[in-house]
Amino acid sequence: MQFKATRDFVRQRAQVLEKFRSPARFEEVMEGMNVAARRTAEAPGPGWDCAIHWHEAERRFTARMQEPAPGETLLLSLASELADAAITLDFQDRPEGGCRVTATADISAHTVLARLALQSLRLVRGRGEDRLTRLIAALGRP
């Protein structure tokens, strides 16, 4: 399943990218989402072991940030028993100044529970896109 979202920032691309690349910012955003994130690898490809309480159980997953196109694209990969996700973040300069971030999340469910959760996001119009937009805003804020 795929979700897309876009967010415009008034700051320049280099400033926005600096926030997205920051392992500390990722950890702060995860904490705000009630996700415990413990860093397991440092830059340039930071990684985390994460856990969230969901549906009466602690769910563990790993996260890894890579920059396949330096200064243009970041890739956040998430993997768990329930599902895998690849979130591609593309950064473009805006003609009037600032930066636009376009996120594309490709999610593949491995269990019935995960498939039902994804279907719920899809059926409630815009819910998946809204969550992706909030993630982009939180990672890129000053």
Automatic annotation (TrEMBL):
It comes from the Bacteria. It comes from Pararhodobacter aggregans. This is Uncharacterized protein.
